[in-house]
Automatic annotation (TrEMBL):
It comes from Halomonas hydrothermalis. It comes from the Bacteria. The lineage of its organism: Bacteria, Pseudomonadati, Pseudomonadota, Gammaproteobacteria, Oceanospirillales. InterPro entries: TrbK_RP4. PROSITE patterns: PROKAR_LIPOPROTEIN (PS51257). This is Entry exclusion lipoprotein TrbK.
Length: 76
């Protein structure tokens, strides 16, 4: 009886394991890796969370990319 209780508890807890959403980065948000990560996620809420994280990451990357354009000397 003492051996059955931990076995039953272990089997019951296996179903409670939560799926982890990958962290958004340049590598995981690349098109091929993104599609692979989305296909591996089983819950729709996790897919949406990862998609939003990648969109936010890409938006932050675009905001950091800028070039200095000096004013034209004729204006001042």
């Amino acid at each position: 009886m003492k051996k059955i209780i931990p076995l039953v508890a272990a089997v019951a807890l296996v179903g409670c394991e939560q799926e982890t959403v990958p962290e958004a980065s340049a590598i995981t948000c690349a098109p091929i890796a993104f599609q692979q990560a989305i296909s591996e996620l089983s819950q729709e809420s996790n897919r949406k969370a990862f998609t939003e994280a990648c969109r936010s990451f890409e938006k932050a990357q675009r905001m950091r990319e800028w070039e200095f354009e000096p004013s034209s000397p004729d204006r001042y």
